[in-house]
Design the sequence.
């Protein structure tokens, strides 16, 4: 089991170098992270994007691209498609979002002429190393499914469990978040959370402990649960937080980054090949974390 991003990077190094196709590589943080990943033996990049910009950025930052394949493409949609095609053809084993927008990349990933679809829902999985939390924490879905239905939440949970298992968590503890613990018809997320808890009890998610609905304070604090008179096996120790919608997940993860100095990595789960998906605003360290996370969780 890995406990922090240093552990994940070490496991990625042991797993061996993976070829990664990067859609929109003309970014300083992107190239810096890939340069570090290459030196550490984690990734061998194939850069797709504006070649002139890529070379200028590399020169400015003393990044050696002598033996790195660069495919020149200035159109964003074509850039995304070319990167996906490289992975689809087997010339690379993972896809990474660079400077292209998330909608452009996902449109290419979901294009039926490529074989990225599995029949499963694609969902975003954020992995966080939080300074005052004792282990790595998954938050999902804050990047893909806008307002998930109950059935989609079930698939989001299955994807998250799969990722947690690959990180060495054999029996994940899962909190399905809401504003309150009481099932209330006017708050659909509470009804969904209870339905998901019932599914878990019937064994639909395998060997997990899933509880919901849970407010954030109860999920993260045994003391809060005790004060509220709630008995919980998850409280204070969750491995996975399931959020009601994309806004909640995005705000929660970014709040932890910018207000609590948390480290983060992000991938898409449910595709045929690993998709390393992160914000264009992320720095090189965060992009490196995502690359290593994608390698380990693939």
Sequence:
């Amino acid at each position: 089991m890995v406990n922090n991003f240093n552990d994940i990077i070490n496991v990625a190094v042991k797993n061996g170098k993976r070829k990664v196709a990067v859609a929109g590589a003309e970014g300083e943080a992107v190239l810096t992270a890939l340069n570090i990943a290459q030196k550490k033996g984690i990734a061998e990049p194939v850069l797709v994007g504006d070649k002139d910009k890529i070379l200028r950025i590399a020169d400015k930052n003393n990044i050696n691209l002598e033996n790195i394949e660069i495919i020149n493409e200035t159109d964003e949609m074509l850039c995304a498609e070319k990167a996906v095609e490289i992975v689809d053809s087997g010339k690379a084993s993972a896809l990474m979002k660079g400077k292209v927008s998330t909608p452009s990349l996902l449109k290419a990933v979901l294009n039926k002429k490529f074989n990225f679809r599995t029949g499963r829902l694609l969902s975003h999985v954020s992995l966080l190393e939080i300074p005052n939390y004792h282990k790595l924490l998954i938050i999902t879905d804050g990047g893909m499914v806008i307002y998930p239905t109950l059935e989609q939440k079930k698939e989001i949970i299955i994807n998250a469990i799969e990722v947690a298992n690959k990180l060495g968590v054999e029996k994940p503890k899962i909190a399905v978040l809401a504003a309150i613990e009481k099932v209330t018809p006017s708050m659909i997320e509470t009804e969904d959370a209870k339905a998901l808890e019932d599914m878990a009890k019937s064994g639909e998610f395998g060997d997990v402990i899933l509880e919901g609905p849970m407010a954030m304070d109860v999920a993260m604090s045994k003391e809060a649960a005790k004060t509220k008179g709630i008995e919980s096996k998850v409280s204070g120790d969750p491995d996975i937080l399931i959020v009601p919608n994309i806004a909640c997940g995005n705000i929660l993860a970014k709040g932890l980054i910018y207000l609590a100095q948390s480290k983060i990595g992000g991938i898409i789960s449910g595709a045929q090949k690993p998709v390393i998906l992160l914000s264009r605003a992320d720095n090189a360290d965060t992009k490196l974390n995502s690359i290593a996370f994608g390698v380990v969780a693939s």
